[in-house]
Amino acid sequence: MIPKNYKEHTLHTKRLSILPAQPEDIEAIIALESHPENRNFLWVGTREEHLQEIDDPCHLLLVFRDRQHTELIGYALIRLDFHSRRFEIRRIAIDKKGKGYGKEAMQALLSFAFCDLQMNKVWLDVYPHNTLGIQLYENLGFQREGILRENYFDETLGYLDQMIYSMLKGEFQLYD
């Protein structure tokens, strides 16, 4: 069963508002994806791809905004599988690194997935050289499921492994 209005849901944390992306957010999302601190860790989408994600019922394109200044802090692309109750974090990027925004956003996404959408599993893949991301996921309680060896080819970095991390509903604990 697909929850009603799940694409219009806004999440609030201490410092962030997490809300559905609008077409006018796409330029900032692409800039964030293309930034040198992010581009080696995630796929850069096109305007057309992001517009399709906004309209697709199986995707959530979310932006993270500072609650006080409405400044764009980051974004996430989620793929939803309501039949198998899976919530895949396809991409996540934060503009201001080292300030805890990534952890705050991830905690909100986990709560949304397990509590609001009643998902059974949240999963993601991460490149082995993304050590900060891996540290965050493990600290949040994600379990490493395995490695897809040389699964993605990057023009600059060559073949890359993808590490699969997940958390099951029974492993999730609400955050303070």
Write out the strand line-up for the largest beta sheet, numbering strands in chain order: 1-2-3-4-5-6-8-7
**Uncertain segments:** none
Total discrete domains: 1
Second-tier CATH architecture: 3-Layer(aba) Sandwich
Give the structural class.
Answer: alpha+beta
CATH topology-level name: Aminopeptidase
Query: How many helices?
Result: 4
Secondary structure: elements and pairs:
Blueprint: E1 11-12, E2 16-20, H1 26-34, H2 47-55, E3 59-66, E4 72-81, E5 86-94, H3 101-116, E6 121-126, H4 131-140, E7 143-154, E8 158-168
Parallel strand pairs: 5-6
Antiparallel strand pairs: 1-2, 2-3, 3-4, 4-5, 6-8, 7-8
Give me some keywords for this one:
4 helices; 8 strands; 8-stranded mixed sheet; 176 residues; Aminopeptidase; alpha+beta
Protein described:
The chain is an alpha+beta fold and 176 residues long. It has one domain: 3-Layer(aba) Sandwich (Aminopeptidase). It has 4 helices and 8 strands; from the N terminus they run E-E-H-H-E-E-E-H-E-H-E-E. It has helices at residues 26-34, 47-55, 101-116, 131-140; strands spanning 11-12, 16-20, 59-66, 72-81, 86-94, 121-126, 143-154, 158-168. Strands 1-2-3-4-5-6-8-7 form an 8-stranded mixed beta sheet, sandwiched between helices. A hairpin with a 5-residue loop joins strand 3 and strand 4. It starts with 10 loop residues before the first strand and ends in an 8-residue tail after the last strand.
Brief overview, please?
By secondary structure, the chain is an alpha+beta fold. It has four helices and eight strands. Strands 1-2-3-4-5-6-8-7 form an eight-stranded mixed β-sheet, sandwiched between helices.
